[in-house]
Design a protein that fits this description.
The protein is an alpha+beta fold. The chain has four helices and eight strands; from the N terminus they run βααββββαβαββ.
Length: 143
Amino acid sequence: MEIIRLEGTDSKLYELIAPLAMNPAILRQNNNYPFKTSVRYKWYIAISDRRVVGFMPLRKNGARLLIDNYYINGDNSAIIDLLLDAVTSDLQPDSSLEALVHNRHTDDFRCNRFLTDKELTNYAKMHYNQQKEITNDLPTECI
C-alpha cells in the first residue's frame, strides 16, 4: 500500500477522489456530509493495487490542523494506521492536531496516540498526543 500526499486543489486529487466522494454509499458512511477541499487542505490518500482505499484530508489553520471527513474502505484498521502515521510524521513540533472521528474508529485513533476530548452522538472530538507515553488506557487490540 502506498500513501500519497496532494495539495487541496491539485487536479490529480479530483481524479482520484471524485468517484468516491460522489458515491452515495460512501456519502452515507460519512453521515451524508459532503467532502470538502480548498488551498488550506492537504490530502493523504491510501492506494492499493492502483485503487484508492482511503483518504484523510487535513485542514490547516495556522499551527492548528484538523482531520475531518475522511474515508476508510471497509473500516480497515491497517489503512487508518498507515494514514495516521503519514499525517503525524509530517507534523511540526508546535502543531496541534485535532480530529473529528467516527465513533466506529475511535479505538483505531486511540491506538495511534489520539485522546478523546468530547464524545458526540456520531463522532468523538480527539487530539493527537505528541508525548511518547500515552496516559489513558489503550484498547486491548493496541497492546
